[in-house]
Specification:
The protein is α/β, with parallel strands linked by helices. The chain is 39% helix and 21% strand. It contains 17 helices and 15 strands. It has helices at residues 4-10, 22-25, 74-87, 113-126, 146-154, 169-175, 181-193, 212-224, 242-248, 257-273, 292-298, 331-339, 353-365, 372-379, 383-396, 411-414, 417-424, and strands at 47-53, 97-105, 128-139, 159-165, 198-205, 229-234, 277-280, 283-285, 303-306, 311-315, 322-327, 345-351, 370-371, 400-403, 406-409. The strands form 3 sheets. It has a 9-stranded mixed β-sheet with strand order 7-8-6-5-4-3-2-1-9, sandwiched between helices. Strand 3 (128-139), helix 5 (146-154) and strand 4 form a beta-alpha-beta unit. Helix 3 runs parallel beside helix 4 (113-126), helix 3 crosses helix 12 and helix 8 (212-224) packs parallel to helix 10.
Length: 426
């Protein structure tokens, strides 16, 4: 579902188009093209904090995120992580505030409550984290029980993202998951009983040979659990994974693109009919339950990442530059650099105005829409002057619609989001 162009930036209710708000957006006639000038970097929105916990009981065949199966190195990692957080204290010294903390991986739910508490305490001590912050822990069924979940909840964790992936035993076995359907459902119910109102499920579709009926069964079982958020991802064949080697050797045949598109449309229709809003190409939430942290990525808001392979998006030393950097993708290198009181950065890039504008258009289009006024305010760029004819054509083809001050993709448009992005980026 996610096209290649969008994936390069990210390294995640059919309606007829309406021109009800067209006069405000001036879609009637294109003006002379303009160029980006004097980008405004001032961003008073709270940032996010991401922690990558690089351990799994067993790696899944499709996963290319950095993780290890040697849990004996957990303590070494935790010591280094706390030191890395302390080394980054200066980044939060200029009055920056944070309103989300997200533990990803790997499998963060392998952390004991005491280990999780030490990390949260370090983040709270080092950075200005708002009392209303959303704190999410990615969770694998089978790694937590009700008692552990209650302990997580008492630490201030208020959101769980549970990696169910499927409710069918053969699909779970194919994916290399360590749990079965019964354990997955028990995990969700235990979370709810432990006081988690905000629970999200991950599901993977477009598995080899997967039928429409099979996928709809997964959706029905997910909805029946009464979670507030459901993320659905197409199975993607990533290089350097067991799945990639299986496809290359002919052991596995990916689902054809047209069937993937059919399952995508089914997902959008089914979840919309059950009260979920699609706010990004793969994410669906009940009203008021969108992921605040993940929305930061899509809204181009600042965030700091900690742990091996974690990425950050922040202002530079001049406060007028925007910099993206990423940590080393090796626990050995990570611990060695931190031990030398060095931040474990593997690479960085200063993003110029054109790159930032391009990313803002891509991310906005594939989530909850391009904010026209925000582009004008932050980049002094008028998208409708530069790409007015393309926008009008997409609306005529029912690929895009105008909703207040935003240009949004329709369900049909999401299916070809890559091509639309190519046409609209500067």
């Amino acid at each position: 579902m996610q096209g290649s162009l969008l994936r390069k930036v990210l390294d995640e209710n059919p309606t007829k188009p309406t021109l009800e708000f067209a006069p405000r957006l001036d879609l009637r006639s294109p003006r002379e093209s303009s160029t980006v000038s004097k980008f405004v970097t001032v961003d008073e929105r709270p940032g996010g904090l991401y922690v990558h916990v690089p351990f799994c009981e067993r790696k899944c065949i499709y996963c290319d995120f950095y993780s290890l199966e040697d849990l004996r190195r957990m303590d070494l990692f935790l010591d280094s992580l706390l030191k890395e957080i302390a080394l980054a204290a200066s980044l939060g010294s200029a009055g920056a505030q944070f309103d989300t903390i997200f533990f990803g991986g790997g499998t963060p739910s392998l952390l004991s409550p005491r280990q999780l508490e030490s990390i949260i305490e370090a983040l709270m001590k080092t950075f200005s984290v708002l009392s209303t912050a959303e704190i999410t822990v990615e969770t694998n069924p089978g790694t937590v029980d009700r008692e552990k979940l209650r302990a997580y909840r008492s630490l201030g964790v208020d959101r769980l993202s549970i990696g169910v992936q499927s409710f069918h035993e053969d699909e779970l076995k194919f994916l290399g998951r360590t749990h079965d359907a019964k354990v997955a459902k028990t995990c969700v119910r235990s979370a709810q009983e432990a006081g988690f109102e905000n629970v999200s499920l991950d599901l993977i579709c477009s598995l080899p040979g997967q039928t429409r009926e099979r996928w709809e069964s997964n959706l029905r079982q997910a909805v029946a659990l009464q979670t507030k958020h459901i993320s659905t991802y197409s199975l993607i064949v990533e290089p350097r994974t067991p799945l990639f080697r299986m496809v290359r050797s002919g052991q596995v045949t990916p689902l054809p693109p047209e069937q993937d598109a059919e399952l995508y449309e089914l997902t959008a229709d089914f979840l919309a009919a059950h009260g979920f809003e699609q706010y990004e190409v793969s994410n669906h939430a009940k009203p008021g339950y969108r992921s605040r942290h993940n929305s930061k990525y899509w809204h181009h808001e600042f965030y700091l990442g900690f742990g091996p392979s974690a990425h950050s998006f922040w202002t530079g030393d001049s406060k007028q530059d925007v910099v993206r950097w990423w940590n080393v993708r090796s626990l050995k290198q990570y611990t060695e650099q931190v031990a030398k009181n060095q931040r474990p950065i593997d690479g960085d890039e200063t993003l110029d105005e054109e790159t930032l504008l391009r990313e803002e258009i891509l991310l906005g289009l594939c989530s909850d829409g391009i904010d026209i006024q925000s582009l004008r305010r932050r980049y002094h760029h008028d998208l409708l002057s530069v790409r007015g004819e393309q926008v009008r054509e997409f609306i005529r083809e029912q690929l895009m619609r105008v909703d207040r001050e935003k240009l949004k993709l329709t369900k049909k448009g999401f299916l070809v989001c890559d091509a639309i992005c190519e046409a609209l980026v500067v």
